Amino acid sequence: MGNCGIFCFDxxxxxxxxTGPSRVDLSSLQTWMERRASNGGRAxxxxxxxxxxxxxLVLGCGGGDTPNEVENGVTQDTSxxxxxxxxxxxxxxxxxxxxxxxxxxxxxxxxxxxxIQEVAPRDTAGEFGSFCQxxxxxxxxxCVPSEIGYICTxxxxxxxxxxxxxxxxxxxxxxxxxxxxxxTDLSCEINAQCEAxxxxxxxxxxxxxxxxxxxxxxxxxxxxxxxxxxxxxAGFDQEESCGFCGxxxxxxxxxxxxxxxxxxxxxxxxxxxxxxxxxxxxxxxRSRNxxxxxxxxxxxxxxxxxxxxxxxxxxxxxxxxxxxxRECTDACTWGEYGECTGQGECSAGDxxxxxxxxxxxRSRTCSQACRWGDWGACTGSGVCSPNATTKQxxxxxxxxxxxxxxxxxxxxxxxxxxxxxxxxxxxxxxxCGNCGNQTRQCNAQCEWEAWSTCSGQGxxxxxxxxxxxxxxxxxxxxxxxxDCNWGPPxxxxxxxxxxxxxxxxxxxxxxxxxxxxxxxxDCQIGTTDVYEExxxxxxxxxxxxxxxxxxxxxxxxxxxxxxxxxxxxxVFVKDDPLGRIDPWVQLSSVPAGQQYQLCVEYVCQxxxxxxAKQCRTSxxxxxKLNFNVDGCHANCGMFCQNDSGTLIIQVxxxxxxxxxxxxxxxxx
Length: 668
Known about the structure:
By secondary structure, the protein is mainly β. Among the domains are: 20-191, no CATH class; 497-526, no CATH class; 541-667, Jelly Rolls. The protein has a 5-stranded mixed sheet with strand order 1-2-3-8-9. A 5-stranded mixed sheet has the order 29-31-36-33-34, with no helix packed on it. The chain has a 4-stranded antiparallel sheet with strand order 30-37-32-35, with no helix packed on it. Strand 12 (237-242) and strand 13 form a beta hairpin. The longest helix has 15 residues, at 26-40. The chain starts with 25 loop residues before the first helix and ends with a strand.
């Protein structure tokens, strides 16, 4: 193959514009030129020769212009735009656009000198400007893509009609040729999809938007990617655990961003699985566990207790009226007994004897206090030497002179003199304090020792009174009896309604605690839903609006708390054109044991006859209310079909309610 100009030649001299039967030679081009002149009706030989010369120059061998840049399937030349010819079939979109285009093919009018004067729609296929699918459809053998679709065209130098531009197109594996293609004005007139340069925007994703731009040929470019999206779907509710078995939640707002977390609700008093221990009894221990509901269990039984209180002491008798002491250790067990201390002179009850007088004998006995008593009388032979005198104790530490008789026995004692206050070892006692007692002992000199400490006292004075707490912050009067001990308490008066620190349920699913005055504190209402306060029709919570499309149907979860609290909602329902609107509301998942009534009223947007209000009661099952709203457009004109309106929804508890949620679905 030689050098290429506008058309590329193979070694046989044929032009390969498109594959298949579109291959033509110079004689074919000449015939085509003549036919074009004949169709014009005014062509002459001068114009014919000019066309042949033009084609010859254009087709002459020599290096053609080399494209400088290729962008979006269009090859750009330094002097003229150059379009790359697609040798395949037009795409299905182009075929559909051409088939539906009411303009039809284009008719060409020629001047007397053979130049194209006008291009107008016509029904003749294959002519210049008519739509085509392959090169075989065109008299010129050129079916090329353009901004209005695939069209039949012709080669050019500067002879394109008004509304057409002479542009270079590239042939596969060959140099380019110049052909007539519609300019932007003509393309816009035919396409007419949009105004060049305009931008269209629509919402997408999570509060994002996408856009498209109208090209200079008045055709829409593809939609851009969705941008500017938020982090969540508007209206979505997220919940997670917090604290001790508590819950918190947050709502995705209308700008697709998260609102702040709610406060942690429903917390317990401890961490699930925790164990608490404390001492009990005598060195014992007990424990309790935190349950899966974050509440303390009951205390276990006291284990490991000892036999005594640390530091306590006890004694036992030993030796001669002695005592041994032992002390309770820190482990609540008794230690060893100590040494025997405080022993007396002898063992109680023992008796000893000795000689006395005139071969007589006397004895003495060890007292219960382990001390020797006085010697007894001398017995045996005689008690004395005759005429011997002695002093004899008498009375209270007094003395009397006794003279020994001849029989070695003492005679009668003389007068008793020098007596004291009492008899040695005598014990005197008296009452003291609160039913107590104190004693004193007569010493060997027959004088009374000091009174002992008052012992054995009671805890109070007979008939005295005091008060003590009882019951729930109450008071009872206690009277001291005759043995100086407090008697049983009287009736408990002034009690409160609860025990300090007690907890009790209140107001459906709330809790309250008993305070230091044994009165119930305020009720902590517990978990409420996110739609409160919506207790009346006037404070009904406005929910996101819906249309009559089935996919717009949605639902919510809420609970009845506090007790007998009503929930009200309002939902605007838009009636889209040409669609039928059938509003409905459904109540389900009613907590076990509860009875809730669903009441719904439909308020027309326009003047009309709204349907009657409906109510149904759920005893745990699902109830659904359907509405015929055709009456809403009765007074808005012959062709008015706007049945838009607002659903006023009431969920009314017939029982106290529950912290568990019910489900409410609605759609149209």
